[in-house]
Amino acid sequence: MRDRLRRLTPADDERYRDWARRLAPYAVAVVVLLVLLAGAGAWVYFDSLAYGPTESPSAVESAYDVTVESGYGGYVVRPDDQPPAGERVGLVFYPGGRVEPGAYVHTLAPLAERGVTVVVPGVPLNLAVLDSDAASAPIAREDGVDSWYVGGHSLGGAMACRYANGNSGRIDGLVLAASYCDVNVSDSGLATMAITGTRDGVLNRERFESNRRLLPPDATFVSVEGMNHAQFGNYGAQEGDDEATISTASAHERVVAAVVDWLCAEGEAVACANQTGGQFVAIS
Questions:
Q1: pLDDT tens digits for 32-58?
Q2: Contact criterion met (CB below 8 Å) for 157 and 229
Q3: What pairing do the DSSP bridges indicate for beta strands 116-120 and 89-94?
Q4: Of 248, 255, 238, 250, nearest to 151 (Cα)?
Q5: Largest CA distance in the chain
Q6: By the 8 A CB rule, do 152 and 96 touch?
Q7: How far is Cα 242 from Cα 178, in angstroms, rounded to an integer?
């Protein structure tokens, strides 16, 4: 080996350099191909294989007095009977990780029927962490809404917290569905509600409890008996979740009832008369 190395000549060195120059474009092409394959794999996993709605979002128009529109990469659900000017409430609801925006339209349509303009924005690859500022556009463009709330399911709720952390002056409150904050909003002054289900097998309970300290001290905590993680949306079963002991329709009713009761307590005009909370437990 040493003899062969000693016999290398300047011509040999130049020849090796020439080979390297010829191979360089192929090496770059291989790297680019690997990046493209990784990107395609991520798209397939997070977008193409995302949890979608079990029925068309527009189907709620036949069940509730609402209008469903495409907007902000997702959906806007408007009440057919708008509240009087000066009393209109809006909610931007961030979807959970790998869940399509349309999967929350059925859940939130009854809330819209009570006068709340609901926006479920689309986010890149169905991951709200890639666009925690998704609430900015609807809040800026939806004329006529007087009080804005942001919220979200699971990962979406955490991103709503991040938005609230930097925009507390633009919103009035925060709604967390099977979620917790990873930033401190305890001094934000925002009205805050956190809803969980007793059969949720996805939510990290230990982290949920430890991160209560990041919420305002007067935050409202609600637990829905028998509800699991996936029932905050309308997308079927989710891997790792526990089996619910109530129907998805019942879960939606109880979530909306809890949110309406809470909004009424905050002084919002959301058809507050004759509300019943259903089988949920408010925890101080």
A1: 444 443 444 444 444 457 999 999 999
A2: no
A3: parallel
A4: 255
A5: 96
A6: yes
A7: 13
The structure tokens 């079963």 sit at 237
Tokens of 155: 């990962």
Residues in the chain, total: 284
199: its two tokens? 């059969």
Q: What is the pTM of this model?
A: 0.83
The whole-angstrom separation of Cα 167 and Cα 161 is 10
**Backbone CA torsion sign across 20, 40, 125, 252:** negative
Token pair in block for residue 48:
């193409």
Tell me the CA distances in angstroms from 283 to 26, 31, 194, 203, 239, one per residue in order. Answer: 62, 54, 10, 17, 28
Kindly give, in sequence order, each residue whose CB lies less than 8 Å from that of residue 128, ignoring residues fewer than 6 positions away.
94, 95, 96, 97, 134, 152, 155, 156, 158, 159
Residue whose entry in the numeric block shows the structure tokens 């059925």: 106
Are 105 and 60 contacting, i.e. CB atoms less than 8 angstroms apart?
yes
**Angle 248-265/105-113 helices, nearest 10 degrees?**
40
What confidence tens digit (pLDDT) does each residue in 53-97 have? Answer: 999 999 999 999 999 999 999 999 999 998 888 889 999 999 999
Q: What does the block give as tokens for 89?
A: 């409430």
96-101-102-103 Cα dihedral, nearest 10 degrees: 0
Q: What tokens appear for 6 in the block?
A: 């000693």
CA distances from 245 to 40, 197, 222, 229, 250 (A): 38, 10, 17, 12, 10
Using DSSP, state whether 280 is helix, strand or coil: strand
Which residues contact residue 61 at a Cβ distance below 8 angstroms, ignoring those fewer than 6 apart? 67, 68
Report d(CA 188, CA 173) in Å as an integer. 9
Burial class (CB in 10 A: 0-12, 13-18, 19+), 27: exposed
- 225 in Cβ contact with 246 (< 8 Å): yes
Q: How far apart are CA 109 and CA 112, in angstroms?
A: 5
